Amino acid sequence: MTATTMHDILHPSQAGQNAAFPNAPVGWTIAEAEQTASDMHLKLSEDHWELVKVLQGCYAEDQNPPIRRICDAMAAVFKPRGGRKYLHKLFPGGPVTQGCIIAGLEPPAGSSNQTTGVVQ
Fold it and tell me: For residues 100 and 62, what is the distance between their CA atoms, to the nearest angstrom?
């Protein structure tokens, strides 16, 4: 891929990434995320995408973020909307597990427990 902007030149690994998802893993695409969500019987709304951004941000700061940091980041954004209950309506298979899969990230160990959204 040819670098076309100064940002592409300074950050070649991010060239061609969607600007709306600056922390997305290399190679991740919205189309892939939509297909993955569809396979999970989910239709992505603005709030689904917001959780994807939160999760990608956590992983951009730390490749293996502690589950506590992920939960704190989710709470900071979603508590006013109903917090954990609301997130479980969006992601019935667990917001951390399903959210990470859609975001192109490896769910952390212990997040497969659907009651907490954290892998056991």
Answer: 14
Q: For residue 36, give the nearest of 46, 48, 47 by alpha carbon.
A: 48
Task: Return the structure tokens found at 14.
Answer: 């991010």
Pick left, alpha or beta for residue 21 (phi over 0 → left; psi -120 to 50 → alpha; otherwise beta): beta
Distance CA 4, CA 7 (A): 8
Q: Which of 45, 48, 71 shows the shortest CA–CA distance to 58? A: 71
> Do the Cβ atoms of 56 and 23 come closer than 8 Å?
yes
Distance CA 109, CA 90 (A): 21
**Residue 77, Cβ neighbours under 10 Å: how many?**
15
Per-residue confidence band for 120, with pLDDT thresholds at 50, 70 and 90: very low
Segment 40-82, tens digit of pLDDT: 999 999 999 999 999 999 999 999 999 999 999 999 999 999 9
CA distance 14 to 18: 9
- pLDDT, residue 118, reads 43
